[in-house]
Design goal:
- With about 150 residues, the chain is of the alpha+beta class.
- About 50% of the residues lie in helices and about 25% in strands.
- The protein has helices at about 1-20, 40-45, 50-55, 60, 65-80, 120-150, and strands spanning about 25-30, 35-40, 85-90, 95-110, 110-120.
- Strands 2-1-5-4-3 form a 5-stranded antiparallel β-sheet.
- The longest helix is centred in the last third of the chain and has 30 residues, at about 120-150.
Length: about 150
């Protein structure tokens, strides 16, 4: 019995260390209502809220997705049908950021939650869009150059 309690204590310490001391943005969500029940310092900095405020928010308040979509995707994460998601999240300053989430179920003494690691992919998406735009211009210019070359040969 004492060995099990020590193992549980060690496991809790390990989780807390991985969660709270991590530089990756991490949130813990109640799958019953979408409320954020915990967030690490990186999440507080990213979203621009103090911890006391961020744990009063729900995914419906930070995500631009519909409540129905959020509910469906939380259930997919809870039942291990899907672990990778893309959203747009609103920060405290109303800035919209593109995010990629890796989510899964985590069982704790307090209940079962969704554990999400959040990556800000806004810069990547902007770069991809710019690349598409410039690639289109390049191919258009190249095709025009071929047409001009054919005329003068």
């Amino acid at each position: 019995m004492k060995k099990n309690q020590q193992a549980l204590k060690n496991s809790k310490k390990k989780f807390q260390s991985l969660f709270y001391e991590n530089t990756s943005i991490m949130i813990l969500v109640d799958p019953q209502n979408g409320n954020i029940v915990d967030a690490n310092e990186a999440a507080c900095k990213f979203y621009g809220y103090p911890k006391s405020k961020i744990i009063t928010l729900s995914l419906k308040e930070i995500s631009l997705s519909s409540p129905e979509e959020i509910e469906t995707e939380m259930q997919e994460a809870m039942h291990d049908r899907r672990k990778h998601f893309f959203y747009q999240h609103k920060l405290s300053n109303n800035e919209i950021r593109d995010v990629e989430l890796y989510s899964g179920k985590v069982e704790m003494k307090e209940g079962v939650f969704i554990y999400s690691i959040v990556h800000d992919i806004t810069a990547r998406k902007e770069a991809e869009e710019a690349l598409k735009k410039y690639a289109g211009w390049f191919f258009y210019s190249a095709s025009k150059a071929d047409m001009i070359q054919c005329r003068y040969i």
